[in-house]
Amino acid sequence: MDLSLQIGSLTLANPLIAASGCFGYGVEYADIVDLSTLGGVAVKGLFLSEREGHPPPRIVETPSGMLNAIGLQGIGVHRFVAERLPELRERRAIVIVNICGTTLDEYVEVARILSDAEGVHALELNISCPNIKEGGITFGCSLPGTHAVVSAVRKVTRLPVIPKLTPNVTDVASFARAAEEAGADAISLVNTFLAMAIDVHTRRPKLTNIVGGLSGPAIRPIAVRMVYECRRAVKIPIVGMGGIATADDVLEFMIAGANAVQVGTMNFVDPFIWTKLMDGIRAYMTTHAITRLQDIVGTVDTSAREKAWISS
Amino acid sequence: MPVDIDAAVIENRRLSADYNVLSLAAPQIAAAARPGQFVMIKTSGGQDPLLRRPFSIFEVLRDQSGEPSGISIFNKRIGVGTTLLSRVEAGARLPLLGPLGRPFEPVDPPAEAWIVAGGVGLAPFVTLAAALQARATPTTLFYGARRAEELYCVNLFEDLGVTIVLSTEDGSLGVRGRITVPLGDALERRPLGNPVKLYVCGPTPMMRACAHLARAHGRACDVSLEQVMGCGLGGCYSCVVLAHGADPSTGLGAGGGKPHHTRTCIDGPVFDAQRIVWDAVSGH
Fold first, then answer.
1. Is A100 a catalytic residue?
2. B233: distance to nearest CA of chain A, Å?
3. What is the mean pLDDT of residues B129-139?
4. Largest CA distance in chain A
5. Where does a domain end: B100, B135, B158?
6. CA dist A258 to A163, A189, A190, B58, Å?
């Protein structure tokens, strides 16, 4: 049974990646999850320097989901390399570092530092966090901006570059195309949906930041649709995510067009989810006599529906 | 190392319309639990509410041979999750992740321990009182509520030989007023040479007031904080509080300077009260 896949020069043993912002720096989970068994670990977004993030409350639950406005609290790239990366190396994790910037130069500088660090396997470009006003999302919501960040980082690193796309745009596939044209090795999507929740008794927003990003099973069908649209627009690998809770959800994303997936919110609910997902994927492969998991990518069969639509 | 157990509900003891004690079969968690630690409970089988909820380990339950067999939680009905836990019946199963968090450090004699609890803030203190009793540390419980009917489970502390001081806001039992009234008096009367450590859990204004009293009287004071928590393992950075000084788990914040956002789940829930920037703490 072959579960592996390729992103640029990087081989992942399986398609299950811990999503950035939902798995700390990986080391927090190292005692309960064998990090080397994951396809990869996307660590919490890093700027050049430390950041305190937003004041609490930072999360609120909504039906089948949650809103967050953490505000990218983080230790900065230097402390990450010095204090967290050695343990990740020792645990033999495939490390995908999510990088952030308030300017183009900051993305480039963070990418440079990480490219020289031993044990970093890929860079995920955060151009999609909905909770930070400066930088990031302004690149991710403009086609020239997306192209500019991806090309700039592309020039300074040999590591695979994976821009993470926002769903808060009219046509996400056009951003996938811009990323591919700029030299991205893969794209990941979706980041969270900009959302809001209000306490009707106090008439105050439930988050200090007023708005936040919606994640969890509530967004899954929208994310699946967006992965499907991007698959038709680009050739590069797609890392799909959005409320994955079961092996069937993983398979749904892959059939829609994802080569790999990330699991975020549901890891909070069940930190032992990884072996359950893996067992479910293997069982599916056995049932359907699939020897190479990548063979199911983008195989959604829309022909019958299209025929029915035409004849109706 | 925390484990996730599909724990059977042994008993749901309803104390009132709003409070219940839920006993859960979880031998591994019971055996590993230290005073003041917590568990993350999935309150629904489905996805609403989606996330687990943090609960202090209220009691460590033991079987007939004295081996740890389970834990209980002290639940106050507030929102959707706690309402589900108030209604659950024996035989049901609840996913239970734990034990989690930095525990209390019980003091040894000749120091005394003064436990200060407000309302549902009683939750982390039975396990602490048991640990203090095992060390023969003289222990007092200061326990306050709005009225006499809301002072629960005092017998658990009496059985452990704890001295009890009660207060009610309506004066129906014990000292009239908030628990900081008898606590303040006791601190005034206490000769400076006799070491005493305060352990506090309750509403935020009460914990803030206790922190100020402890500082004014030069007494050590630990608080157990509850914040909205996503994962309980340090992964999501939801449960932060603004704190001075270095975090035990990571050394972040060492070197002083400005206070920083520290995670309640892995650097707490127990904190030195003087580390906390109380004006920035959310919650009631």
1. no
2. 7
3. 97
4. 63
5. B100
6. 14, 9, 11, 45
What distance in Å separates the CA atoms of residue A39 and residue A137, rounded to the nearest whole number? Answer: 27
Say what the pLDDT of residue A312 is.
56
Q: Which residue of B lies nearest to A76 if distances are taken between CA atoms?
A: B252
Best of B42, B238, B239, B284 to mutate (most A CBs within 10 Å, chain A): B238
Comparing CA positions, the residue from B39, B69, B35 lying closest to residue B55 is B39
Domain with B17 in it: 3-100
Express each pLDDT in B198-243 by its tens digit: 999 999 999 999 999 999 999 999 999 999 999 999 999 999 999 9
Contacts of A145 by beta carbon, 8 Å cutoff, 6+ apart? A127, A138, A139
Return the residue of A nearest to B232 by Cα: A268
Which residues in chain A have their CB less than 8 angstroms from residue B235's CB?
22-24, 28-29, 267-268, 271
| pTM for the full predicted model | 0.94
Are A255 and A225 within 8 A, CB to CB?
no
Q: What is the pLDDT of residue A133?
A: 63
Total domains in the fold of chain B: 2
- What φ, ψ does residue A70 adopt, rounded to 5°? -70, -40
Strand A59-62 and strand B270-272: the pairing is unpaired
In CATH terms, is domain A5-53+69-193+211-311 a member of 1.20.1050.10?
Answer: no
